[in-house]
Write a structure and sequence with these properties.
126 residues; 3-stranded antiparallel sheet; single chain; 4 helices; alpha+beta
């Protein structure tokens, strides 16, 4: 059974999925896209208005969010590029988004498994 419900974020959609006796909420790709469109638009607006500290902070926050959330997914990258296109163009925004996505890929597929493996070895040894 699948139900669509309004999420916590404005405009975000969650999908409730019943798996056996468990109930899981999954964020829909459209919500991910809209979130990064907002981030890209805010970053572009701060850059266009000359708020260099704010734009630097937003880009750093987008990179740091990639350490926690899987921002390497296509909807995140596409939303970021769409949000920034109106100020810096699609090529520069795609390069910046790809850099942030690369950091996220390294965090999720290299650093996290390595840290988990090290933790398991230390736990087994101790």
């Amino acid at each position: 059974m699948v139900n669509n419900v309004d999420g916590v974020d404005a405009g975000a959609k969650l999908q409730r999925v019943d798996i056996g006796e468990q109930r899981v909420q999954v964020v829909l790709p459209q919500a991910r896209l809209l979130r990064l469109i907002k981030v890209g638009a805010a970053l572009s607006a701060a850059f266009a208005l000359g708020f260099k500290d704010v734009s630097s902070g937003l880009f750093l926050a987008a990179i740091l969010a990639g350490l926690i959330a899987p921002t390497y997914r296509a909807e995140y990258l596409f939303g970021f590029v769409i949000g920034m296109t109106w100020v810096v163009g699609p090529v520069l925004s795609a390069m910046a988004g790809t850099f942030a996505a690369t950091i996220s890929v390294l965090a999720h597929f290299v650093l996290r498994p390595a840290a988990l493996g090290l933790y398991k070895k230390l736990r087994a040894a101790g």
